[in-house]
Specification:
This protein is an all-alpha fold and 117 residues long. The chain has one domain. It contains five helices and no strands. Helix 1 runs antiparallel to helix 4 and helix 1 crosses helix 5.
C-alpha cells in the first residue's frame, strides 16, 4: 500500500539525491569527471535532468520494496531527514531580514534626483 508516509519518503529521497548529485561539494570530483563525457556532464549539472532519472529510480525502488524496512524505508528515512536538516540549517543560518522602516515624506526628493515618466 502506498501511504502518505511512503510519498513523503519518496519525495525527500528524490530531493536529497538530486541535490547530492547536482550541487553537493562531496560529489564535485565525480561531476568534474562526468563533464568530460558528452551527455553525462549535462545530466549531473542539471537538476531537472538528474531529478527525472532519480525520480524514476526512487519511485521504482519504493514500489517494489516499500514494506521492507532495510531495503527502502531505512535509507529513505536517512535521505529525507538529511534533506530536512539541510533545509533547517539554511533557514537557521540565514541572516535576519532587514526590518528597517524607511519613511519618505510625499514632497521629499528621492535619492538620485526626481524621476520623470
Amino acid at each position: 500500500m502506498f501511504t502518505f508516509l511512503n510519498f513523503a519518503l519518496v519525495l525527500g529521497s528524490i530531493l536529497r539525491l538530486t541535490r547530492l548529485v547536482v550541487e553537493d561539494s562531496i560529489t564535485a570530483p565525480l561531476r568534474a569527471r562526468a563533464a568530460t563525457v558528452k551527455y553525462l556532464g549535462k545530466l549531473v549539472s542539471c537538476s531537472w535532468c538528474s531529478g527525472f532519472w532519480i525520480s524514476l529510480f526512487v519511485v521504482a525502488w519504493s514500489y517494489y520494496d516499500h514494506d521492507h524496512l532495510l531495503a527502502f524505508r531505512l535509507p529513505a528515512y536517512v535521505l529525507t531527514l538529511s534533506w530536512l536538516v539541510g533545509i533547517a540549517q539554511q533557514w537557521l543560518d540565514a541572516p535576519p531580514p532587514d526590518r528597517t522602516v524607511h519613511l519618505v515624506h510625499h514632497n521629499q526628493v528621492p535619492p538620485g534626483g526626481p524621476t520623470h515618466q
